[in-house]
Every structure is written in C-alpha cells, then in structure tokens.
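Example with several molecule types.
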Amino acid sequence: MSRIRQLFVKPWIWSFIGAFLVWLAAIVFTHGYGAGGMITAALSLAVFMVIVGIGQMFVITLGPGNVDLSLPANIGLASAVAMKAMDGNDAMVAVGLLAALAAGFAIGAANYLLIWALRIPPIIATLSASFIIQSIDISYGRGLQIKPPPGYADFSNLQFLGIPILAALTVLVTIAAAIALHRTVYGRSVSAIGQNMRAAWLAGIPVGRIRFLTYALSGTLGGLNGALLAGYFRGANVDIGNEYLLASIAVVVIGGTSVAGGKANVPGLWGAALFLVLLLTMLNTFGVSAGVRLLLTGLVIVGVITAAGGQKALR
Amino acid sequence: MMSEASAHVVKLDGVERHFGAVRALDGVDLIVDRGECVGLVGHNGAGKSTLMHILAGTLTPGRGTIAINGTAQRKYSVALAQKLGIRCVFQELSLCPNLTVAENARVNHASLRGFGWRRRAGDLILAKLDEIFPGHGVGPGDIVRDLSIGKRQMVEVARAFTVTDDPLHLVILDEPTSSLDAETAGQLLSFVRRVVAAGVCCILISHLLREVLENSDRIVVMRDGKVVASGAGADFDRNRLVTAMGAERKDRAATAAARVRADTPMRVRARPQRQTDTTELVAHAGEVIGLAGLSGHGQTDLLLAIFAAAGHARANVEVTAPVALIAGDRQADGIFPLWSIAENIGVRSIVRLRSGLLISTEREDELAEAWQKKINIRTPDLHNNILSLSGGNQQKALFARALGSDADIVLMDDPMRGVDLATKLEVYQLIREEADRGRTFLWYTTETDELDNCDRVYVFRNGRIVADLDRHEVTEEKVIQSSFIESA
Amino acid sequence: MSTDTIAVPTSAPPQAGAINLRRTLRALLPALSLTLILIAIAYLNPRAISYFGFNLMLNLAIPIALATIAQMFVITGNDLDLSIGTFVGFVGCVTATWLHDAPLLGIAVLAGSVLVYAGLGALIYVRNLPSIVVTLGMSFVWQGLAILLLPKPGGKAPGWLLGLMGFKPPYVPFPIIAALVIAAVVHIGLMRTSYGAILRGAGGNPVAIARAGWSLLWTKVIMFALAGIFGVFSGMALIGITTSADANIGNGYTLLSIAGVILGGGEFVGGRVSPMGAVIGALTLALAASPLLTFMHIPPDWQVGANGAILIIVLAARALISRRDAQA
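Resulting structure tokens for the full complex:
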C-alpha cells in the first residue's frame, strides 16, 4: 500500500491524472466516439509544447527571473529558415533542420550575450531580442509561403499504431533531458545555480558557461520546434509560434517545476502538455466558443497553481 | 516567591518549544528585573535565539507561560510585545534596504504619520544615533542599501531604543557588536550601561565572553535547550562560563612546530588591491595561514580575489593549485537547500565523480560516507535534506565539500561564526591533519583564539596587510595593536 | 537576475561622493533617454515639436503610462503582472459597451474587476503563489471575457470620456499635463506618505515589516488593488482615444508596461521603483514606439525590432553607469 502512496507523492503524477480526467470527460460527452483519435491528436500536438517546454524548464530552473520570452519569435524565424533552406526538396531536409537549429542556437547565444554583457535581466533581454527577431523574420520571410518538402511533411504526420512518430522521438528526447538534468555535470550545475547562484560560483561551478549553454539550449529547441511545426502544419509563417510562449511556461509550471529555481520536473512536462491539449480538445468537443475556451484555460491554470501552493518557506 | 511590590519585568516559566523532533527549548525559566542587564550565553543550538524570539513575540511557545510586568500573557504577539515595551535587535538585520533611515524608523513606529512625519522620524532616529554613537556620520535621508554594514547595525540598534507611543522596558540585543569595530562597540556598551542604570533592562547575547563578563549584572548560561547556570555577573569568569557551556577546556599547548617556509612549494602569492608597498601574502604547501584584523578590512576581498584567480589570471595574484572556498555565511554562500547532504558534499567534485559521461551516485555516496566518518557529521541518513542537520553539522558538510575535493588550497572565510565549540575543536584537528598532508589553508577568522592554529598570521587594516606575524609572535595584543596602526 | 552579486570587487569601496554621483546619473537616466529621443525627433522633423505634434505623438502615452504605473505597483511587491495587457483590453471592451449603454452596470463591473485584482493579491499571499503563473492564467481569463463581450471590434466610448481625452488645454498639450499629474499623484502617494513607506518596505524586506507588526496581507492586497485601479484608468483612457474597442487592443501593454518600469529605473526585486521614472519611461516608449521610427523612415517591418533595440541601448547605458557600483 505504501508503494502506491509513494507513487502519488511524485509531483508529476498529478498532471497525468488531470490529463486522464479531462480525456474521460471528453469521451463521456461523445459517448466514447473518437477516444483513440483524441489521444493520437493530443500526442501530436503535445509534442510541440514538450519540446519548447524542455528548454524553458532548464531556463526557469536557473533561478528566479530566468525565463525565455523570445521563443515565439524564435519559432517563427526558425520555421521560415527551415523552409527556405529545404526549398521544397526532400534531399535538403537535413540541411534545413540544421539551419533551423543553428538559427535557434544563435538566438539563444545572443540572448545570453545581452544578459551577461549588458547585465540586462533575462525577462527584458529575451523580450527585446524577440522584438528584433520578429523584425528579422518579417523582412526575411516576406510574404513567401514556402511549402515544406512533401516527404518531410508526411513524416511529421506519420503514425504507427496510433502513436505519432514525432511523439515517440520526443519521448526519447525527454528521457535524454531527464538524464542530463539528474546525472550530468551540466544538469547538477543548473540545479545548483537555481538554488543559490553565489554558492554555486563559490563551489566551483562555471556559472557563466552553464547559463550560456542553457539559453543556447532553449534557443536551439525553439529552432527545432519551428522546423517541425512548419512540417506538421505544412507551411511557415511569423505567427506560428505565438501560442508557445504561454504554453511553454504553463507546461513547465503545471508539470511541477519550481518557479523559484533549482527543482525541475521532466515527466511532468508530458503530463501537463497532454492535460492542456486535451483540455482544449474537450472544450472544442463541447462546442464552446473561443472566449469560453480562453476563460476556462485561464481558470484551470490559476486553479492548478492555487491547489499546488507555492514553495514552502525555508526555515 | 514573587513580591507584589516589585513584579519582574519578564518572567518566563517552563517554556518549551519544539521544531519537529528537535527540542529547541526544553523547559526554561527566566527572570529579568528592572534596571539589570542579563547576559545570555551558550553555544549554538543552546536555544538562546529561540528563547528571545518567544520573548519578542515572533514565535509561540509550545508550553509554558510568559508574564510581563507581573501580568500573565495569554495571546502574546509581536504587536503586544511592542506595546508592553519589549524591543529586540536580532542577528538578522531587519532594516529595509530600499528605504531611508528615517523611513525605517517610521516602520517601527505606527504613530509617526500625518503631515510632517518624515521630519519627525528623521529627528527621532538622528537624536538617538547622536546619543549612542557620537560621530556616527549617518544622515536620516541615507538609503540603507548604501550604508556599510557597521552603519546599518548602528541604525538598527538606535532604532530599537527610540520611543514614541509605546514604552521602553526591555531591549534584547542578540550579538549587537558583531559588525561594529572596537570603538563603536565600546560606545554601544557604555550606552547600554547608562540606560540600564536609568531603569531599562537589557538581555545581552554575545559570543564574546569578555563583553558579557564586563557588562552583565547577571549571567544565564544555556545548553541544549535548558538553563544550566545562573548567577551574579561577578560570580563568573571565563573558565566557569566555558565549562558551563559544556566544552572541553582547550589545551593551548602548541601542537606541531611551524612548517619551515623554504621546504615546500609555494602555493599562493597575493597582494591586496590597496597595498601601497610590496608586502604580499605568501603561502606554501602544508601551511595554515591566518588572516586577522578588524572584520571587513579586506580579508574576504583578498580571499575572493584568490578564488577568482584560480579561474582567470589576475594581476597581483598567483595561484599554483586548485582552490576551494568555505563560506562563513552558509545560508547566503554555501548551502543548497533543496539537495541532500550527500549532494551538498559532492557538488565541488562532480567532475571527478563521473564514471563515463554520467555522475555515479555510488561514488558520490562513498565520498559523503568517508567524510561523514572523518568529520563526524551527525545524521542518520546522508540522503536526508541538508536542512535536517543542525547549524554546526551543516558547516561540517561545507568543510567536507571543500576537503573532499581535489583542491590543494582551501580558503576559509570565517567559517566558524556561530558554530558550537565542540564542532570547532573537531574541525581544528582536521585542519591540522590535512595541512600535515600537504594542503594549504588560508584562514580568515574574527576570533583571535583561532589564530593559535596558524603558522603565520597577516593582519589587515583598511584593505592592506599591516603586519606579518610568525606563529610564535602571535598574541591577541599584537594583533589588536596592528589592527590600529596606520600602514606605512 | 544579473551576475552583479557575484562580481569580485575590483576596486576599493567607492567614496561617498562617487556613490552620489553615480546614483544621480542612474536616477537621471530615464530623463536623459527621453531628452535624447526628443532631440532626435526635433532633428528629424522639427514640425513635430509643436502643440499639435506633441498632442499627436503622445496621444497613446497616457494609457501606456497608466498601465506602467499599474505594473509598477505590482513590481514594488516583488511580483510581476503578465495580465495587465489583456486586462486593459477587457476594461476597454466594458467601457465601450456597458459603460456607454448601461453606465451603472459598467461601473459595477469595473469596480468588481478591481476587487478581483485585490483578491488575486490575497490569494498570492495566502498560498505563497508565484505571481508570474497566476497572472499568466488570469491573462487568459481577461482575454476570454473580453472576447465574450466583444467578439468583433466595435462599441462606442461614452461621451464624457471622449470629452476628457480630447481636452485641449492652451499652451501645454493634454498628454503632458496628464503625465505630470499622474507622476505627481503617484509619487506623493507611494514615495512621500507614511504608509507608502510601508508598502515599499514590504518589497524590500517583508520579514522586517511583518515583525514590526504591519500586515503583509494588506500590503499585497493594496498593491494589487492599486494595479487594478490604474489598469481600469488605462483601459478607459485608451478607449477615450480610440473611440471604439476590440478584445486584443491592450495585448501589447503587458510587455510595454514592464519595459516602462525598468526603463524608469525600477528593479524586479527589492522594492526599488520610481513613479516619475516609470511615467518618463512610458513616455519614452510611446515616442520611440512609433513617431520616432516613422520620422527616421524606418521601414514598418523593422519598427518592432527598433523598439527592442531602443530598450537594449537604454539598459546598456544604465549598465555602464552602474558597472562600478558595488551592489549590496
């Protein structure tokens, strides 16, 4: 019995329970119709939230005040870069992906440069960077609607036994991220910095280098997300990443990562992503309007964080 | 037997307080009468701060009664304590750094409002500062953030003695001179004597036994949550206090002979930024070098410069081996509160603890266990959270972190502050052993006694080295003398 | 979070005079930036420096300034409000519909939303919640409510509001007068009153304020309520200018308000804010956001990016000035 209790103590379990409940509510409404399809669709869409959620999670774990607000602009630009590089040609897929990753990495590096060299708080640095990136994207992707190469787009939508291939691959990436967080020097360093940056420096951790790597990682994952989104939705555009700012933060927080830094929760990212996507699906199934959908999403987020409560005050 | 004519100002009876399984207070009785200064001593974990928090109203007792001025208090609180005339100055400074001195005075006096409040608050605090610390140099419009820590403590102390609506009967001073230099500390203590003679009572907590002995009418000694000795100040001396606190009398005999300088390779050479002559701090392998002088006179700066030099080359600092630093303020600079004891110990060595690409938890545990034995960290399980350890054991964990690493040079930034005597003795022994094995220690300490453990002592003043004393030359007098000599 | 706190001191502790000089420079930085932008505008288009020109350029500065002040109150308490933008949009929708058609209902709804803000403050304090997440959720709520109220752009601003915002005093353009009034009122309220000191102190050292017997719950509730009130003013002022509303009208205000507070010398933690600086910061952003860029003939594609660049330049200047300050 205590084993089961131990399972419930794990913080990430709640987001999965929430996701499950929402799915139940939805299929009750549809009398079981499309239950499987709902899961498949949810997995497909959750992928994109999880990918940026991983990056945002590492950034947020660096400590209070660390957040990457440049993700939407990053995703938009990366999608355009990927599509232009691939140029509708399946043979150029690898090149396109690399280009998108490189663009994302460059953005992450630029973010850190602003934070470190100009001592700008991360919220403002990534915010300002996002303005600039937006402009670059607008002028770069001017009007051109480049379609992704057909093979690439098909692959993005590929499923096996109802499970999207992208989702499976993303699960592997998630596992890698979890290992990195708990068992690598890098992951330990991030957690240390998030708990106490000064103590981390005095304990010999290269704080600057770790922060740089983290912002670069978040940027790179944003780039990846942009390329994948362009493939899945069969086209790139400036706004393709807009909803992923709030989504990336929500997924991190609902998934159980501490906003105060130092404690990250990787499996929770999936639970939270599924929960959010299923919630939206459920609301769509109920036929609610956009306004009600937004209202309920907001109330759910407030409700979840209120129930979870904040960080216990340290003695 | 309480005579009704003169009710005690404070009477605590059988006060108990537990924090989970920890018995911070195990049935304490305390009496304070008008016009007396009670010195409260005890090592860390004795319960002094907890008792004072209860008296000040910030903590509620689990059991026991509080009577102020003869009246038993049922629903005691900070607000009530304030109204009854009980003030306190705790070790954690409670000024708002973003407010001015006058605004901070206002915070404590709800009646300072309405038109012209700012001027009245300023006058109030300035008058008190003038009274306690003549020549203080603090203005009511100064923003606290811009003041040095000594000036901040002066403001904090002065504020506690200001009176508007509520009376002033008792002031609790918890290590009030820890950030003051000798002159200002003297001003404070003579003010306390004056104010006590005028009828206010005072509870003085200090680890500087000399301060307590010289200024207390009565002394109360606590150990492990209980009062173990109490009596007139004149009845106590240093030895009796130390014995009562439960520590072994330290054997002052010098242990090994000082290391001969030329024998071993040089490890550190550093000149302080503000040094005008060519004096530098030099440390060889196996030496224990002390940094002394008044606190805040450049010792920590030099240690940090040496620490930074291990990473990037710096002018005037030369370092020839890996460096680790043990912080003195463990909450701000040392502890990772979300991690276990083992993880806190291993963090400096994570690169070495890898097997392959990943950190090996076995190796981490091995390291932690080895040091738990060596340095005697009292805990049932090294995987418990670090905060489950007492303060002294947390400090030991920080020592284990530095000593368990590959660092040949260990910098210590006053790491024994607020640590109990038993822990200190264990650590001194360990430092000697490690030094014998070839490690170099640079030890900044604010307690002259600890300099007995050093082979050589550099005395600092105003950011410069003003004296370079060999082991045999080190006496408390010489150190203090050098601290006050202007450099050449 | 900058790395200031772990910088190894490279110089001796600065003398009092040097600290004061740097502090003054830091305090003047917002005004300096504004002056620079004004000079640039004057150089590029001298006719803009006129009653009519200022009126036009600074038109939208009033709602931005009000939203910035709202954000400033929240930041003073070491929190962050990511919902102020959508809240302004919601208020705008209410103003253009109910306040116009059924004024009593409109007033009741607006008052109720201020109460909601106050309630959020209480919730955040009692449950020790991260304000970023709570306000993130609330931004969805306000947005949803706004869309329900006005699915398509429309509505009509009440006449008296149009009259107020369209007021044309002699000699000095209305936006400038309004900015001065707002700055003065908030400055006196927050920086000069005795309770204002408590409110700021709750951001600087909450434990100390609580120990002195003040209620931290009240300070939090009051700060959020003030944010709600100024958010309501901002939304109303906005509709007074644009005459009609749409649900997304305020969305950019969240980031603009944060930028305005920071530009004005405020900091995210520690209770260190400046109402005058915040208003000046808002004016600077309002000018830089559109008029300056238009005069510089920056292509519309790059206008958004130029906003970011301006922010960066100002913050870089501040960093350079502060570089040698030993931070507490």
